[in-house]
Design a protein that fits this description.
This protein is 14% helix and 31% strand. By secondary structure, it is of the alpha+beta class. It folds into two domains: 33 residues, no CATH class; 99 residues, Alpha-Beta Plaits (2-Layer Sandwich), CATH 3.30.70.2330. The longest helix is centred in the C-terminal third of the chain and has 8 residues.
Length: 139
């Protein structure tokens, strides 16, 4: 609306607010949906276990800042009930989310929330890869 006035919402019916939330309200009013933007859950964490991945140097050399990472629950992990695998965009395993940061993220994933990673940095440290990442709720 050009004059910046608010259009009235018909909240007298059960579907009035829902219609507005989906852009079907009076005068095309659209109510923003909660969490319409990604939420950063972990702003800077290292991928754990990279030294146990065969060919990690080659895999890490193909990663760049800003690349997306897939996170996948590993519910059958015998060492950590909350284990979360970190995979590159092609599905190749890079390591795990560190155990001291994974329970809440795992619970969100188990509840159906979409969690993604993003490469922050890649360093070669005496023959093993240090991969920094951020973790986002993208739901």
């Amino acid at each position: 609306m050009a004059d910046n006035t608010l259009a009235p919402l018909d909240l007298g019916t059960a579907g009035g607010l829902l219609a507005a939330m989906h852009g079907n309200g009076p005068a095309g009013v659209e109510v923003p949906k909660p969490y319409a933007q990604r939420i950063c859950l972990l702003p800077d964490v290292r991928v754990a276990g990279t030294s146990h991945i065969d060919g990690i140097g080659e895999l890490a050399s193909q990663l760049h800042e800003g690349d997306g990472l897939r996170l996948e629950r590993d519910t059958k992990n015998r060492f950590d009930h909350w284990a979360i695998r970190v995979l590159d965009a092609r599905g190749r395993r890079l390591g795990f989310l560190p155990a001291d940061n994974n329970e809440i993220i795992a619970r969100l994933m188990d509840g159906g929330k979409r969690i993604v990673g993003e490469v922050l940095s890649v360093e070669d440290v005496s023959g093993w890869a240090r991969i920094g990442m951020a973790v986002w709720l993208d739901d």
